Amino acid sequence: MELTAELVVSGLRVGGPAVSPDGRSVVFAARGVGDGAEERPEGLRWCGEPAELVFRVGGQLCAVGASGPARVLADLPEGVRWHLPLASGEVALAVPGLGGASRLSLLDPVSGVSRAVDLGDRHVAEAAQRPGGGPLAVLTWEGPGYDPGLLRPRLHLVEPEGLAVRDLGPVAAGAEGLAWWRSGDRWRLAHLALTPPGLQAGMAVFDAEVPESGAIVEHVNRTAGMAACPLELVQVERGAPLVLVAAGLDTEVHRLGADGLTLLARHEARVERLAADGAGEVVAAVVSRADAPPDVCSGPVGGDLTRVSDSRPELRGIRWGERRRLSCVAVDGVELDGLLVLPPGKAEADGPFPMVVLPHGGPYDRHADGFALDWHPSAQWLAHAGFAALLPNPRGGSGRGHEFAAAVAGRAGHEELGDLLALLDHVVGLGVADPERVGIAGWSHGGYLAAWAVATTDRFAAALVGAGVSDWGRQGAEGEWGAFDAALACGEAEEHDPVARAGGIRVPVLVVHGAEDVNVPVSQAELLRDALVEHGVEHELVVYEGEGHVIEGVEQQVDLLERTREWFTRWLGVR
């Protein structure tokens, strides 16, 4: 069965699951590619006795019980950004306010009466109610944008009855994932945040006792020194929170306790959107494995997870390329990992193959041991065209702890590129890659690394730069992440910027971008194009109108996939 671009982008995509309080039911939403946002059920949350599911569709807040059908709780034409059912029967809502900031209100679905919570002009990012119907912990930002919003977040305590608000003080940048839990006779509040003081840093679990009055005195880093990175924090109604952790190529589930984290399970997969029952003993998540696309899986918190959805049956007849885990040592002794994907039906002994290196985005992300097929340049798509694919995990990424992530602060492209080349040398040494026929392709920060790699080395025969930064000074001023981008690249332009080093590019470059991208503005692609023209470099520029940082249109996704194969077949060749 042939893997076509249309097949890659077809089928359903599953959303985050919700586990019923008794652990007997798992509910999730699925959507087709290109479905309108107003049609998608979002924010699935169980509540009440008997338990029913509360969710939102567009501007409507809805509920459905075991016997159905769904009913509309409230019509909110101004929109709802998130919702949280409360023990009282009210629903906490984040609704759009002046300047785009979210404002918090408590809605009684029966009477239709809504009560506004006065948090000044701060943007409400999220909230969590203390188990048993207690106060709300509320996380706010200075404004709705990532910069400065994520830079100076604060915590507040809101009493649902009288709406009294107490300021609990500041938390570290990037705070998210509030979770209450009880230790002895004291209530504690945990959250995720970047490890201070930098913005290019590993995430950590912070935990604090909530005092009877005043602000929180100290947030303790419960994952300090851990050679892994927390991804998600899940509040449990009758127990301590669960923590989803990126651990190298794997994903782990831990439980938070007074002494830190306790490992419950390790999965050779990419695991996301973790949910739990009321006791924290039954979990569900979106899981993708090397040979299986993302699906909802469920099981005991400390055991194997079994698939409960079947989102991509149309892929069942496809033979996938063999995947191998890689490890090697960087030139300065740092241990590295990554993945190798071979053409279907081929073994390492059949090499050397033309190869495409696929650096991930972020840089605070990783290649986990999951399903390597997507709308952007991806391993299985290229493998089916006869290429081997290298998925490196250089410094700056997640999964290896804070120090590994923070190593690239102010040094974009330096350690990252060195680590990428170390892994490339490793697979060339294995006889898998033909060193004369190696390309590089990436999206977002991966696109930046692709441009930087061909500007500063002669190791690659062609490149695809997708939504990548080419001028860090302009990016810091124009991109939506502002200070976070500035934390990645400091110093002279020639130390980081592909446009400043474009005179070193000697190979063909395909530049691809969304016209409406606000994360990495399309001006970055235009600057790179201009530099390539100036230096007489073979290139193409493709701009998808109406698309942002993520390409969502089906026709555009198909076009990108086909261009990716055609570009590397043209310049690397497949024998």
UniProtKB/TrEMBL annotation:
The record's annotation in Pfam families points to:
Peptidase_S9 (PF00326)
Q: What is the protein's name according to its record?
A: S9 family peptidase
Q: Which Gene3D superfamilies match?
A: alpha/beta hydrolase (3.40.50.1820)
Q: From which domain of life does this come?
A: Bacteria
Q: Identify the residues that the record assigns to the Peptidase S9 prolyl oligopeptidase catalytic domain, covering every copy.
A: 379-573
Keyword Hydrolase recorded: yes
| GO terms for biological process, alphabetical | proteolysis
Q: Which GO terms describe its molecular function?
A: serine-type endopeptidase activity
The protein's UniProt keywords, in alphabetical order, are: Hydrolase
